[in-house]
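Technical appendix A lists one of the benchmark inputs used to test multi-chain prediction within the project. The record comprises three sequence entries:
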Amino acid sequence: MSHHIVEAIGLHYTYPDGTRGLNGVSFRISHGESVALVGENGAGKSTLLLHLNGYLAATQGQVRIGDFTLNPKTLNSVRRTVGMVFQNPDDQLFMPTVFDDVAFGPLNLGLGKEEVERKVAQSLETVGAGHLSKRPPYKLSQGEKRSVAIATVLAMSPDILVMDEPSSSLDPLSRSRLIALLKTFKHTKIIATHDLDMAMDICERTIVLHQGQITADGATTEIFGDQNILARSRLEKPLRMQGCPKCGNTSLHPPSKREHK
Amino acid sequence: MSKISDNFLDIGYMDDLAGKDSWLHRLDPRAKLITVIIFIVAVVSFDKYTLSGLIPFFIFPVALVALSGLPAGYLFKKVLLVLPFAVLVAIFNPLMDQKVIFHIGSLGISGGWVSFLSIILRFILTVSVALILICLTGFNAVCLALSKLGLPKPFVVQLLFFFRYLFVLTDEAARMSRAWALRALGAKAIDFKTFVSLIGHLLLRAIDRAERIYLAMRSRGFDGRIRMIRAMKINSREFIFGIGWSVFFVLLRFFNIPVKLGALVTGRFS
Amino acid sequence: MHMADALISPAVGATMWAATAGLIAYSAKKVKEETDDRKVPLMGVLGAFIFASQMLNFSIPATGSSGHLGGGMILAILLGPYAAFLVMASVLIVQALFFADGGLLALGCNIFNLGFFPCFAAFPFIYKKIAGVDPAPKKIMAGAIIGGIVALQLGAFSVVLQTVFSGISELPFRTFVLLMQPIHLAIGIVEGLVTAAVVIFVWKARPEILEASRQSEPIGPININKVLLGLLAAAVIAGGALSWFASANPDGLEWSMFKTSGKEELEGGGGVHASAAVIQEKTAFLPDYGFKKSQSAIEPEESVSQSWPAIDPGTSVSGLVGGSLTLAIVFLIGLALKRRKIAVP
């Protein structure tokens, strides 16, 4: 199945005020891969993500999602394929109740009432938030909000998940739950993050962005082991690679609740 | 409007109350809304010198509070808090209308004082019932009821969004206010220049946020229409509640029970 | 400047509700036609912004009082009049429901007074004319201040009219006007100043925001004429309804006539008398409207008991006694219900 593939070819993007966002970005992510997108603030991570579901249109170059080249005509099909989880769940949960919020996407797809209800129940169950269905979003904790935000995207049955800083502002327990959850997903995943420990847990591949360009693209352990690459992008080695006695050494291992950040 | 900061926490609390469960909570919001409207119309349709005729109407708020388990003290305090406003305007009545219209013993009571008290009674009745409606139903459900009753969709959608982001933005404003207070060293109110800058930033952030929400909506297939599944059902329970109370209000409106009752009692004892 | 339920008669409340409902329906239709999807979340968030911004107050030098951002004008500048009117209506609805500012019956009046004038009078006819085409700080300042004054003056006058027409408060027209207008002149200037300052702030930081809202703003002379025409129609209908209400029910007292007596001739006499009174009130200048004292002063003593049968001395004592009894019964019932509720949860 080719429609899980994400491909960027020579993407350039300049903001209306003249700021350079992307400066020739090319990569190809194939079916089922989990890729971390790392880089300093302003490196272009969010800008790149916004290209993947067609919210921003590249000034030069193109994006291919599965069989589609992204253009105004394929926009809707692309948005069904690519599910986007935003950095701040408050921006993503805008309906009166959790149920309405998760149902928002499926209803827009034109599904029937029963089908929608089934999808909502299923998505909430997947993220362990079935009991929150009737609650208004502003009554949820940060971790619950994040889970529900992910459910709103899952309800659209996307093939590809794109996430912007999913672990930011979560307490350690919520964070490790999130990591465990994301590991169960079979989707192709692209995760922009500063949380390199999480990246190590979930993503086998990492792309490093620096000033709108890709400066490294390869196996996560290799990239995080290269002090030069990390320093240039103002990143620090993940704790477990700093010889932390509690985390062990460079080995990849499942997240433990005692993990510290 | 300046009471907002003091009162704001209440919105969250009232919303919590609406999340509780009782058969009154579960009643279809439309039935409650319509009954409350009939109540208010009945109460305000009395002439300005009515006192006794208004009193039986207290049964409605009292019964709702008693049956639903809402905190009576809290609601009472809330009504008291806004009462000065009614007093402020009504206080002119005794000054302007000094014609004595009846006597209690040797004490002459002027029409102005009667209408003053009447305004206060109306105020307490209408305000308490509106507050109870919100505490029993919740804002979102009231909006959806209005939508089912024909309020234009763009307006309902805007109300829902407004209520959703009320919590987020007041939080932001409160944080700004706190940050200001920490560095203001005892100044009581913000000076104009700082105020404009605070509000300006709050506004820019609000606009940015709206942009991000729009983005989130678009990426989940938003095409300009908001769709919702909402099961609302009018059953016999709603009918009994609505019709029962409404008939009762109309009866109270036409027959002054206290006067009848009083005549009966005083007739016997005098 | 909020009107309160307790001060308005059902006729005035219903009329203003009708006018407001019409404006909301019309604005909603217009917003829908604009088909700017972005406005869907933007309107809600800006409503929340207006609400939240009112948590912050600034000190007005040398007065000891403080002010905050008023809503209507800045919303109209950012969203255009139709969307702004809807947002203003929501802000007032939440205030009415949660803070009991005003109340439900008076909500129509409040939305009209605080929404209509800034959005459909001050913004298109003053602000837009002065600062609309090519905004610059001085123009924004002038437009917002003059607009603020006009909106507040009209709004305050509207409050006076609504109160006087309702006849619940005894405050005479002249006194009320002399009280309201100067106060609201000051408030208007302050509100205009804040609005201008915030708009200039936005204009300096992100000029494209004002640019965009200006472009998506199709308000033209035809549209505003329609609005005015609709209002005129509403006013005529309202006037008709009012006088019908008034003639059928001079003081809202028809019912009490029922109650006090089986005297048919009194009721008939009351009707004629009432119509006459209405005509008298209609032809007289406004001050006397709702100023019942002067009316009763002119008329012979017996008319007092006619128009105020509810406080007929005979019934007033039983009213007092019965009233207290009823109150006691009401609360006993409440207690009983509560007890039962606790016993059977």
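The radius of gyration of chain B is 24 Å. Chain B has a mean pLDDT of 82. Comparable benchmark entries are summarised in Table A2.
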